[in-house]
Amino acid sequence: MTRASQVLVCSMLCLFSSGCLGPQRSNYSSTQTLDSSSFAYDEDNVLLAIQDTLRRCNYRLDRVDLREGLVTTLPESSKHFFEFWRHDVDTRHDFWEATFNPIRRWVEVRLSDDADTESQVLAVVVHKERLSAPDRQFNSTGAAYQFFGESLPSTTGLDRVTRADDRWLDVGRDPAMEDYLLRHILDRLALGEMRASRD
User: Fold this and answer.
1) More confident residue, 19 or 35
2) Helix 92-100 to helix 3-21 angle, to the nearest 10 degrees?
3) d(C-alpha 192, C-alpha 50), whole Å
4) What is the pLDDT of residue 49?
5) 153 near 137, Cβ under 8 Å?
6) CA–CA dist 104, 175 (Å, integer)
7) Are strands 31-34 and 61-65 parallel, antiparallel or unpaired?
8) How large is the C-alpha radius of gyration of the chain?
9) Measured in Å, how far apart are the chain's first and last C-alpha atoms?
10) Which distant-in-sequence residues (6+ apart) come within 8 Å of 106 by Cβ?
């Protein structure tokens, strides 16, 4: 390896590690009070903006309950480093975590009435889950080719490890992605308000 290549590799490692370990924002928001007198914040417009925003972020809708004001999505595997067209992680830490670990996210958005202010509250929750699977036992190079298959025994005594043994563990919420989705829903509503004012 030439000296220039070594410097380039060291520089990239420093850049990536500083991005992963650097300070993260803490002033994220996952709720917003909406002024119900505005045309843009009409319940139907808000629910349409929620669905459109989630679809644009490549989430598949699971439940759309207009009466309850609830929209949920199916779990989606989070993006890897080469999936530049996707946006379902919003920080460098989450980006690299999803690249090196099996992570998935699903979204729950709720529109509810606030009795105190007679307005509506829009709340976004992004659930994050990590895959946990028993370690597979292998002691030959041939077995390494079957490492992700279902024919190897586990290190804990199972005859073989299958997909049924995999578990998705809840690792909390993703406040950065909640903030991102909330901002984009509100931007879509503001765009609708501008179009309505022109008509």
Assistant:
1) 35
2) 110
3) 13
4) 92
5) yes
6) 15
7) unpaired
8) 22
9) 64
10) 59, 62, 72, 73, 74, 75, 76, 126, 127, 129
HSE, CB side, 13 Å, CA atoms: give it for residue 119.
12
Asked if 87 contacts 177 with a C-beta cutoff of 8 angstroms, the reply is: no
Q: Give the residue among 17, 69, 28 at the shortest CA–CA distance from 46.
A: 69
Which phi-psi region, left, alpha or beta, contains residue 51 (left: φ > 0; alpha: ψ -120 to 50)?
Answer: alpha
Residue-level pLDDT at 98: 84
- The 10 Å CB-count burial string (b at 16+, else e) for 100-118 is eeebbbbbbbbbeeeeeee
| pLDDT at residue 107 in the model | 96
- Tell me the pLDDT of the chain averaged across its residues: 77
Where are the domains positioned within the chain?
A: 24-131+169-198
pTM for the full predicted model: 0.71
* CATH level 3 topology of 24-131+169-198: Alpha-D-Glucose-1,6-Bisphosphate; Chain A, domain 4 (3.30.530)
